[in-house]
Amino acid sequence: MNRVAEIRPYLFLGGAPGRTESFLREKDITLVVIAEGDNPALAKCIVQQFKINAKDNPKYCLSQHFDAVADRIDEEVKKSGKLYIHCIGGISRAPSLTMAYLMKHEKMTLLDAHTLVREKRSIIRPNPGFWKQLVEYEASLFGTNTVEMRRHEKGAVYPSVYAKDYENIVLL
Fold first, then answer.
1. Over the stretch 71-101, which tens digit does the pLDDT of each residue have?
2. Catalytic residue among 34, 70, 87, 97
3. Is 169 left (phi over 0), alpha (psi -120 to 50) or beta?
């Protein structure tokens, strides 16, 4: 979880442990986007911070932050800035927000955004609630979907990108 992924030359994704002063300096990071719970932004940070309070819970409405975070990332990119986006582990919240940015400002489909982010950081696994919100966001942006939500015969809801994972799974 400490490994930081370079999604784009200006956009890095990871967990809180990857956010070190040496990393921020080495990569010339100009903005840190933090997607965590009620923890305050770190007081001692060598760069500007943009924090949202977001719980890693399938019932949490992360989509309320999609536009604000995507627009803030885009604003920094237009100023030739570099960003590090993180949550605690870099597995669910921050990757979801990264995919929302890629859809909105790079016009990527959700499938392509997920493929890119997962290729760069293989441990991502947004929770099913965030997936549902990303699917809805893709439809609102493009009027169509490249990922759909499915229901396993035992009731589990999952995105179609995980279909192979669910083909032979036995849920108790």
1. 999 999 999 999 999 999 999 999 999 999 9
2. 87
3. beta
Give percent helix, percent strand, percent coil of the chain, each to the nearest 5.
Answer: 45, 20, 40
Q: Which domain holds residue 141?
A: 5-167
Share the mean pLDDT of the chain: 92
Domain assignment present for residue 172? The answer is no
Q: Between β-strands 48-53 and 83-87, what pairing exists: parallel, antiparallel or unpaired?
A: unpaired
Q: Model confidence over 153-171: pLDDT tens digits? A: 777 889 999 888 766 665 5
- Residues facing 84 on adjacent strands: 12, 32
Q: Give the C-alpha separation, 67 to 24, whole Å.
A: 25
Distance CA 157, CA 124 (A): 17
87 is catalytic: yes
Q: How many domains does the chain have?
A: 1
